[in-house]
Structures are given as structure tokens and as C-alpha cells.
Amino acid sequence: MANNKHLTLSDRIIIEKGLNNNSSRKSIADTLGMDKSSICKEIKNHSFFKKFSRSGVSSYGTYDCVHIERCGFNSFCPNACNKRVPIPCKTKDSSSGVCNGCDKKSSCKLTKKFYEAQAAQDEYEYTLKDSRTEWNISSLEARDLAETLKPLLEKGQSIAHILMTHPEIKYCEKTIYNYIEQGAFEQFGIKNIDLRIKVRRKPSKKKGIYKPRKNKKYLKGRTYKDFENYMAQHPEASVVEMDTVYNDVSSGPFIQKFQFVKYHFMKGIFHACKNSDEMYKGVYLIYSALGEKDFKNLFEVILTDRGSEFVCAEDMEKLGCHVFYCDPMASSQKPHVENNHNLFRYVCPSGADIKKIGLRSQEDVDLIFSHVNSYKRESLMGKSPIEVFNFFHDDSNILEKLEIKEIDSESIDLTVNLIKNKQSKILTAGDYSTTITTGQWNLVIHFKKCRFQCPF
Predict the structure, then answer these.
(1) In this structure, what CATH number is given to the domain that contains residue 337?
(2) Which of 70, 338, 393, 443 sits 20 to 30 Å CA-CA off 217?
(3) Is residue 209 part of a domain?
(4) Do both 43 and 178 map to the same domain?
């Protein structure tokens, strides 16, 4: 280990075994020939929490809170409470900081913290690969930084001196030297030859790009492997697969789709733009419509992809659900919502201008999914998703809250005519609803002309 800068998987296995045997961090560090602080950082950065859970007990609640009895509960609080204060634990709060070596970990009901070698190695490799792909600076930031550096470098000042006199610069000396050597500032007139001491590092063969690295900490504890582990412990959990469907990424509209896996039932939310704030609003709209109890029952788990619009996991989980993400380029891990794209595409074909077809509002989206959910399926033994849903929730008004209506079998329309005809009916009702005089007739002719010029 002495000749290497980074921990290997075998090093991490030694750390895990040491923690399992209640070895001190100092003894583990001596075994690996490292400094104790390096072991402390490794355990801190790559350990994870795990709640106590068992069948039949609310996954949102906890045994680990000092206020449980004060709130009127008997050892277990069933609520997801933001005032939770963990019960002190001598083992977890000790120098090791993890529960690996605790002999009571299998029966302990407190929130536990573990270090696992393979999980730590996977997380490290993912972070290392990401950190080497691109410059962690935007083009605008590079330009602003170059405008500060260039006149001072021309006066013979060193990078170290510039940083000491400009505390507003957030980058360290080594990072700036690396950016100069890799050519991040060349287009702004700064090269390594301009430095008082020319940088002699080996240039990177990979062409850099101006793009800050994505912060992927939101994935910790929410990967597809974590989803599989959660479902193994909660096999009856209600899962909702979430996705976004659109034809034109520049102008939209964007439909946020929710597939209730257990019922093959779908709900869509209309958005004019596609970002994390809008997607959170979509989840919150359903939460507000259903109420806390029904939302938690139906949205216990949300499984989605790693699109940038779905990074707001923490905000969504505050509503009382668990959010997990599929692996990259693995749409097969959420097959239900992917397969049901076809039914939506019957009405809104891929490549067509959705706005021209007539999809312009939430009411249009509800109309489409009312027809889709009323469509009978062979996979449901000749039943429709609405019939299956009503079988399990016959005494509730959930469908009414979701603005989904059952359509008569003979009236179901899964073609583009569904919303085209709706637009036509609106024009017809407006054009011929009143009797008019000759003077007014000229006005109506002009009005009709305007309406027909609008794009559908």
C-alpha cells in the first residue's frame, strides 16, 4: 500500500474485516501502512445508514427517536417526522463510527451504520471515473477567471500570489495550474508558457470540455440495487414507475407519467418545460390531490431513471415516499411504464407535433389517460386498469381525485382523433351557437378565419 496513493478493494476488505472484529482505526491503519486519518476519512465517506425494518411495520416510521414516548407512542413511531432525534448508541457513536462489530446488530432496532468493502469500492470507482471525464468549470466561469488572471500573469505575478490577493477565487493553486496545462484558458489568451515557471506536467490526451461535473450524491442509497434490497424486505410495497414523454425537447409539452405497477394504471401530468422543479411539482400535485394517507399507500416507492429532471429525490421523499433510480441505459428495469408508452403513442405519435395534434393542457392529458386506463387488456384477463384499480379501492374516490374517468368500451378512442375531435367540437360550438344579423355576420366571418389560422 505504501507505493500507491489510492485504496484498493483488498485494502477495503481489510478495513471491513477489522471493523467486524472491533479493531481500532489505528490498528487498521498500521496494518495497511497508512495514516489513521486516511482510514477515518474512508469510513466516513463510504459508510451508509440502514433502518431497522420488519414485515407489517410502516417503512416510514422508526424505533430510533428519543421523543417516541413523549409523542404518545409505545417504542415505535409510525410517522415520517422531521423532528426525529436518534437515540445515542455507545457502539455507533464510538471511535469506529459504524455498527460492523456490534454483537447486537441483528436484533438492534436503532438506525445502524455500516461499512462494506465492495460498496465502498464501487462508489469510489464511480466517483474517480466521473472526476476524470471533464473540466469541473463552465465556459463562463473559465472566461471570468481568465479575465482576472491574465493581466496579473502578464505583470509576472505567480498563481500563488494572485490567490493570496484575490480570496474570491474559489479554485486552489494546483487546480488552476492543471487547467492552464490542459488548455482550459487558451481561448482566453492564457498558456502555460505565460507562467513564470512553465508547467511541465504530462498533457492529457483527452480533450477537455467546459461542463461542471454532475453532483451524483443523490444516488447514494437510491440505486437499483438498493431498490432490489428494499423490495426484498417489503415485497408488498406499492411501486410507481415514473418517466417523461415528449416529442420536441426544445418546446415541449412534456408529460410526466406515473405507472402504478400493481394495477397497470397510468396518470399523466402536463408540463410546459422539463426540469427538476417541474417534476417535483408534478409529484406534489398528486400528493395534494390524494392527501397524505392515500399518497403514502400508493406511492410507497417511486422508481425512475437518472434524467436530470428527476434529481430532486430528497424533496420527493419528504412527501413520504422512497425514491430509487435505475442503472444508466437500463430502461428494462422499469418495463411497465416503458411498455405502456405504446398506448399513449397511439394518440400522440412519435415525431408528430403534439401541440398541432391538440395536446395543450392538463385536461387533454386526463382525457387521454381516461381512455388508456379504460382499455381492456389480455394481461389483465379481459379487465381494464380502472376495473382492477376499483376492485382494490371500491370504497374510495381516488380516481375522482386523480381526474381519471371510466370511458364506455364502445367510446374508447386511441387514435389522434381523440383530441383532434375535441378541438373541432370547440370550434363548432363557438361558431354556430347564436343567431346573428348581417352586420355581426361580417365580424363572425373574420373571427372564424382567425380561429382556423391557429396551429393545431
Answers:
(1) 3.30.420.10
(2) 338
(3) no
(4) no
